[in-house]
Amino acid sequence: MILSGLDPSGGAGIQADIQAATALGVHPLPVLACLTVQDTRNVYNAAPMEATLIREQLDCLAKDTPIHAIKTGALGNADIIDTLLAFLVDKPDIPLIVDPVIKAAGGGDLADQALIDAMKTRLFRRANLITPNGIELALLGEDNDPGIAADNLLAAGCRAVLATGGHGEGEHIVNTLYRQGQSPQSWQIPRVGGEYHGTGCTLAAAIASGCAAGLSVEAAIEQAQRFVAKAINQALAVGQGQPVPDRSVRLTP
After folding, report:
1. I need a surface site. Which of 80, 117, 227, 241 has the fewest CB within 10 A?
2. What is the pLDDT of residue 107?
């Protein structure tokens, strides 16, 4: 199940999640959390959906369809977080992958302070994995050093933090997994060109898809990285801003 925002450019958000899940062989159950005014360059406005309507959708789906994992993206407001957590109270075994979307690559806001606080104090404790990029990690972990920021989040109750490196520099994109009581574990893929619209959404959705298919977190991350690398290599020039990963690609076994 995917709980995320709509990017009308089709580059990020719930469409990216749907495409990634479908390409990786799982069926997406998309629940829209917010609408945005957005293109491939930036986010200009956003409005959350009604939390009570979201809860009706979640309950309706749960009565009809097995849910093997949940992925969240832009969530609109703190009420939607509380709605999701209330829905999950009696479902402790469903893996929850959280992409803590705060800002668009162009700088536009997708979360106010109340939503950020709700993520930090309530949502992250339930998540099996959160996938912040460098900017989000520094803000949420309150330190510019990725290792210290990740440790701060773990100390506050996070189970696992995948610090993503798409916004960094260097020849490779390095994603590093931090967990309590374990040494960090890193994966890397070649960095191709600049930044791409929707790579964070794509990575988190691909990880959730792997978890839904029964993969371990490590195996899901490995598969997701291969998928993102292939999608970037075939990126599409959709608009005047960042290219969009081609999520129609398929992985070979």
Report:
1. 117
2. 66
What pLDDT sits at residue 165?
82
| Phi, psi angles (nearest 5°) of residue 53 | -70, -40
Q: 90 vs 27, 62, 84, 94, CA distance in Å?
A: 23, 12, 12, 10
- Residue 16 is given by DSSP the state H
Domains (ranges, CATH) in the chain?
A: 2-233 (3.40.1190.20)
pLDDT in tens, 109-150: 789 999 999 999 999 999 999 999 999 999 999 999 999 999
| φ/ψ of residue 37, rounded to 5 | -100, 110
Report CA-CA distances (Å) from 214 to 73, 111, 187, 209, 217.
21, 31, 20, 9, 9
3-state secondary structure of 151: helix
Question: Cα separation of 211 and 1, whole Å?
Answer: 12
Identify the pLDDT of residue 196.
Answer: 87
CA distance 10 to 2: 16
pTM for the structure as a whole? 0.95
Per residue in 58-80, pLDDT tens? 999 999 999 999 999 999 999 99
Q: Give 3-state DSSP helix, strand, coil % of the chain, rounded to 5.
A: 40, 20, 40
Structure tokens at 194: 């600049």
Give the separation between CA 3 and CA 14, rounded to whole angstroms: 8
**Cβ burial, residue 85 (10 Å; 0-12/13-18/19+):** middle
- Fill in the DSSP letter of residue 40: S
User: pLDDT tens for residues 88-109?
Assistant: 999 999 999 999 999 776 667 7
